Amino acid sequence: MTRKEPPGDEEEGAARGPTVRHLLEYALVRTAEFALLCCDVRGATRAGRVLGRLLGRVDRRHRVVAVDNLRRAFGPSLGEEAADRMAMRVYERLGGTAAEMVHGPRLLRGRAARRRLPSTGAEDLRGAAEGKPVILLGGHLGNWEFLVPAARLAGFDCVPVARRLDNPLLDRWLEGVRASMGNRPLPKRGALRTLVRAIRDGKSIGLLVDQNAGRRGKLSTFFGHPCSTQVAGIALARRMRIPWSVVSLERTAPGIHRFVIGPPMYVRDDDEDEARAVDEMNRQLEERVRRRPEDWMWLHRRWRIKAAWGFPVEPTEGAPKGGGRGARRQAALPPR
């Protein structure tokens, strides 16, 4: 399932309705869902890993990206064959995560939910917050779809933010699965004002901050390489004067995860301290990915930097050559 959100196209795509490709993707996912729900969570996880491995075999484009990312992150110590094997394990874990997600509405019901999502570090963060909301910053590590239920079980009434899926049929299906687990994310586009209002109403905020932020991000490093980083969470913590913490889920068994809450952090009201907080956020996320590299989604181009973004580093992609439409559009972009 790919996630795309081109500027201004979200409502237009919804108005056009689903395409034949959308219908085929939807039918495939719902068929797989039915098969996975015929098993218990252990059997579904095993089946999901098999499906994930099959996807890895046919999805050469993203597998190449994953191998390149792994070798960039771990350097010469990870050869190409080892990187390819690890990339396939990433696909297996993603398949297992998808299988757990479709079982989520049943797994996270009643008292069983607390046994399946124990937490560490919650008391320290609640003590630092002194009754105020907090900013929980995570990544696509482990089963990120369980982060919001885990946060609520740990005592944080969390409002998440998520991008819409490109496929409107799958987007509505995923919205229903999430809602049945108590997870109703805000659309990412235009969410800032709503998030500020939610914080003032006493609700905590959950954001996934490990993907490329494009020209709107701030320059930081991840695994020692420059990258565009999402800073909305850190900026909200600074503006609202509330603590932030890096969080993740560590799978201990199929359908059972430990919710790990990092130390509470504050941001002083100055630009230098905000930049240091962004670097610290990436450092903590990197530390968790290093511990469980197969559990992170290496399939996206984390270190992609375009010349038009104006960062003071060597871009990984240059501006379009010649005087074509793309070059004229980039030339018209306002300076950072």
Q: What's the helix and strand layout?
A:
Elements: H1 10-16, H2 20-37, H3 41-58, H4 60-74, H5 80-107, H6 112-116, E1 119-120, H7 122-129, E2 135-138, H8 147-153, E3 158-162, H9 168-180, E4 186-187, H10 192-200, E5 204-208, E6 218-222, E7 225-229, H11 232-240, E8 244-253, E9 256-261, H12 271-291, H13 325-331
Parallel strand pairs: 1-9, 2-5, 2-8, 3-4, 3-5
Antiparallel strand pairs: 6-7, 8-9
Features:
single chain; 336 residues; alpha/beta; 7-stranded mixed beta sheet; two-stranded antiparallel ribbon; disordered C terminus
Structure description:
By secondary structure, the chain is α/β, with parallel strands linked by helices. It has one domain (10-309). The chain is 49% helix and 13% strand. A hairpin with a 2-residue loop joins strand 6 and strand 7 (225-229). Helix 3 packs antiparallel against helix 5. It is globular. It starts with 9 loop residues before the first helix and ends in a 5-residue tail after the last helix.
**Largest sheet at a glance?**
7 strands, mixed
Main-sheet strand order equals 1-9-8-2-5-3-4
Q: From the helix content, strand content and strand pairing, which structural class follows? A: alpha/beta
Number of helical regions: 13
Radius of gyration: 20 Å
Number-wise, the strands total 9
The ordered H/E elements are HHHHHHEHEHEHEHEEEHEEHH
- Gross morphology is globular
Unreliable spans: 1-15, 321-336
Proportion of residues in helical segments:
40-55%
| Termini separation | 32 Å
The overall average pLDDT, rounded, is 90
How much of the residues is beta strand, in percent? 5-15%
Q: How many domains is the backbone divided into?
A: 1
